[in-house]
Amino acid sequence: YQRRVHGSYDQNQIKDFERILAQNRRTIMDDPFIRLYIEDLLKTIRTQVLLSLIKPYTRITIDFIAKELNIAPIDVEGLLVTLILDNRVKGYIDQMRQVLELKTDKADDTRYASLNKWSHQVQQCYGQLSTKM
Fold first, then answer.
1. Is pLDDT at 105 greater than 70 in this prediction?
2. Which of 49, 50, 53, 58 has its CA 20 to 30 A from that of 71?
3. 3-state SS, one letter per residue, for the chain
4. Would the pTM of this model clear 0.85, i.e. be above it?
């Protein structure tokens, strides 16, 4: 079971990781060393999965994250608060709507503004060329 736990941990497979822990709970909890660190290990893998889960989004619901991580929404909020305070997540939690709002990166804003300006200039050149022909 240790190799499977290690493999699922390395691959951020939270559901496999938790299933292996549940199937081998007695063996795992009999080992004092593992029992001492199991909560930290779970928090670490949940954090890694959460970070990769939210990466493509600018807005994501706490409930969706909770379902993906197989934990309660209040636990998701706790993880998110820690990540926000540690500056590992740039955003805020809208508790009324239960949504994580992620801030866009300034570099992305600048890039899109530059692309928009370039597109506008290309349209102007096209318009000038089409009137001369």
1. no
2. 58
3. CHHHHHHHHHCCCHHHHHHHHHHCHHHHHHCHHHHHHHHHHHHHHHHHHHHHHHCCCCEEEHHHHHHHHCCCHHHHHHHHHHHHHCCCCCEEEECCCCEEEECCCHHHHHHHHHHHHHHHHHHHHHHHHHHHC
4. no
